[in-house]
Design brief:
The protein has 335 residues and is of the alpha+beta class. It contains 9 helices and 18 strands. α3 crosses α4.
Amino acid sequence: MISYKMNLNCKNHAPFPAAMCNKCMPPSVIVKRQEYRHVDYAEFTNQAEIANFVQNWLAGGKILQRMGFLYGYYAEDPNYKNGVRAIIEAIYEPPQKSEVSSVELLPDPFQNQVDVLAQHLGFERIGWIFTTLDQDTVLSSHDLRQAARFQEEHISVHPSGYKVSKFITVTIRTRKDDTGDVVPDVYMLSDQGQALERDNILEDSDKRKMVKIRTPREGEILPTVIAQGKSSTYVEPEFFIVNVAHGAPKNNNYATIKHSDFPVENRKDPQRPSDVKTYLTKFSRQPSHVKYADFHLLLYIARIMDIHTACYLAECVRDETPVSEDFEAVIKSLQ
């Protein structure tokens, strides 16, 4: 991925600002749309999980926005040469402060345990999802920059050897012509947009529908940004957005997560031990590895018991093996 930073370690002359040469200067940014994708298709395998997320938003009148991290895995997409498919199995909703037009993430000491539990299910963090009232822009300047930061935090090595991100962004909004119809859309930021945020070329914009190029500080040299043939301080977000096709399978027989019935963490109504009894009673006749196949139940067990017990249950769910009677007895003691 290209760098837009000035080279401060040039060996051809004295250190900047005493001297500089063309090799030190950051390259000009010729803004253009990206013609390729790092993810070809996003599959909403666990449709009940997405529906739960959406219904919670709708139940609040869409007044307060919500976000969550998507967990799942990447698989080969047979419809494209060297294609990549993002399989979405679960959503974790971290502590957050919800506003009418945005969401502020709060400190989350539990996040590492969520990632560990996900790994034992065969998952990783593959994206983020958020609700929005925006009807006149695909991604606002604020959302675009957040997406770029998330992508930079989740880098993998492409088969070609380049470091790229496959971290997707999913928006939930109502249709402009039918506010009763809620639709998901999936995007990624281009490598160029991601690099501009990484190299501190962008700044908070006073125009929601425009990305703002940062003004250089005294003695600082930033690259010239050229959009639509002219030097620009504002750029339309659409230039940096890559659309990702998406859909759902005909059935979820192959999904690891079978249920989305346990109350979700970090919402208005807190989770309680009695929720465990209600849940296990509902699915008491199912095989144990199916019964415990609820992401939020496993997270709750990790929180009130320990991560090791939750990870053991996650492995049983992943491998479709029975849960030992001893562990079943421990879980029942929570009720």
